[in-house]
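This section describes the prediction task in plain terms. A model, or a person checking by hand, is given the sequence of a single protein chain and must write out its three-dimensional structure as a string of C-alpha cells. No templates, partner chains or ligands are provided. The sample shown here is typical of the held-out split.
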Amino acid sequence: MVYPRNSATIQPQPPERKPVRAWRPLLARLRRWRRASSRRTVRQTSWCREGFYYLLVVAFVFLAAIIADMNLLMILAGMLAGPLWFGYRLVGSTLQGIEVVRRLPPAIGAGDSLVVAVEVRNHRRRLGSWTLVVEELVERLSGGGQVLARPVVFFPYVPAGQSRLRAYRGRIPQRGRYRFGPFQVSTRFPFGLFRRVLTVGSAQELTVYPRLGRLTQQWLRRHHVSFEGADRREQRHGEVSGDFYGVRPWRLGDSRRLIHWRSSARRGALVVRQFEQQRNRDLAVLVDLWQPRAPEPADLENVELAVSFAATIVAEACRRGGSDLVFATTWHPEKVLRGTASAALVREVMEALAAAEASADERFSALADHAFACIDRGTEVVLITTRPTTPSDGRTPADWLAALSQDPARRALLGQVRVVSTSDPKLYEYFQPD
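The expected answer:
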C-alpha cells in the first residue's frame, strides 16, 4: 500500500486488555476471613488431664533411656513424642475457618418452649472439623446477671465448605431480658491430649414476655356492666359487620359484594353499603409495682401476679380491638404507651412489662401526673397495685389514690378508677393464673 507523502504512518492499535478479575473471589474470601477473625478471640491451647499423664510417661521413658543408655528406649521415647507434636498441630488447625450462627425467636412467653438453632459453618476448602463442642452462657440481664443455663451442643463432624445445623430446647420460667452468648467452641481432636478453645460470634438478647392467665366470666361481666353504664357509647361506620347505616360512593379497593345496585342505578354511579359497628370502651391500665425494701417471697409473688394480670388484660383488649388503650407503670412513669388496640401495641406493652421491676420508692404520684394527662373522659381506668388492702396507716389503696390530687376535676376522675390489689384474695374471682 502506498501512503501519501506528508501523511504519517498509521500504526495498528493493540487490542484492549480487559482487567484481570481472578483476584476478586480471593479478595472477597480474605475479607470474610478477616471479618470472622475480628469477631473471635482464640485462647491458648491447654493440656488435658490425659495429655499430662501421657507427657509423664514420655518423660519417664526418655529419662530411663538416658540413665540406662539404651538406644531402643530412646527410639521408643521418640515414637511416643510423635503423637504429642501431631496432636498439638492438628488441634490448633481444627478450629480455623469456623463460624457459628445462632437463630433465636424474636420473643417468647415465660414458661413456653424455647428452641435455639445453632449452625456451624466450615469455610475451609479441604479439611473438615471433628468433635466440635459449642457452648454458651444464658444469663438474665436484670437481677444481678444471674446465669440461667450453660447449654452445650455437640457436632461430630463438619465437612469442608459445608455447614451443620443442630438445636437445643429449654424453658425460661421467669420474664425479663436474657443474653445468649458469645459461643465458646472447643475441640480435643484427635487424641484428646490437648484442648483448644476459641470465642466466636456475638451475643444476642431475647425478651421473655410475662405469663398470660385467664380472665373469668365475672371479670368480663363486670367489664360489660361498666361499659353499659358509661356516659357515652361510640359508634363507627365500617364495611362488613354491624347494622346497615347507609351508602357512600365506591372507592378503589371496595369489595364488589358491597355494591348497592339499586341505588347505583338510581344515582348513575357506583355506591357501596356502609354498616354501623359498635365500638368498645377505651381502656387505661395502670400498674403500681410496689414492694417493701426487704421483700419476702409473698411480696415477690404479688409483683409477678400483678404483671401477669396486666398483661392478660391488655392482650384480651387488643384481641377484641375496637378501642384505644393507655398503659403505664411505676417502673418508668414518664413512659406512657397509647394507641389503638392492635398487635403492635401488645408487643410494646409486653416488652415494657418484661423489663418492669418493683421498687419501694413512692412513684405513683409521677405515674398519675403522666398517665391521667393522656386519659380521655369516659375511659375505663384499671389500677393494678401490689399494695396491701389493709396497710399499716389504715388507708386503703382507693383512699390513698383519691388523696393524690388537689384538683377537683382530677379527683372526680380518680374516684372512677377501679382498683385491684393482688394481695386481695378476691383477685382470683376475676383472674386465674396459669
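For orientation: The chain has three domains: 35-208, 237-278, 283-432.
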